[in-house]
Description:
The protein has 12 helices and no strands.
Amino acid sequence: MAKKRETDLSTEEKIIEAARKVFTQKGYAATRTRDIAEEAGINLALLNYYFRSKEKLFEKVMFEKVHKLFGAIAPVLNDENSDLTEKIEKIVENYINMLVMNPDLPLFVLSEIKNNSEQFGDKFNMGKLMLESVFARQIRKRRPDISPLHIIMSVLGLVLFPFIGRPVLRAIGAVDEASFMGLMEERKKLVPHWVAAILNS
């Protein structure tokens, strides 16, 4: 009985791993369940046994990826024991470290959010997480004259954009792997300074 369950889990994980790869390469619309079954090395009937539809499988993969993208900062946003400066430093460092390990993540998530923005908003409720956080409260206290969204967008933009623009930077010969990683290490120190300048302006 335990052996059967172990086999089931490994088959399910094989399907999820294949789905991660195919959805990331092709996006939701262009992916067929047959593509995922082929990538997993199983037949379509077995895939359908574990996951009744492409939607259910995508939902699982998307939830995982969104959790990875936003989960890196969620604990920091609501930490009552750190001040605004410490939060910004931690958010920047956590995000850059996570994106270095998952370079395809931002483009995938942004592309799928663009195509399914209503569903994303309903399921993940990221606006509430950010705008009702301790971080947002600290921004309001420091700068009551501006919306916390300006600071949140600035931090996320300064961290995410290099990873989104990375293929272009490579294509024009501006960076290679080593120089890009060096820039990201520098950025861990620079971005908090830039955001502090915005807060102090």
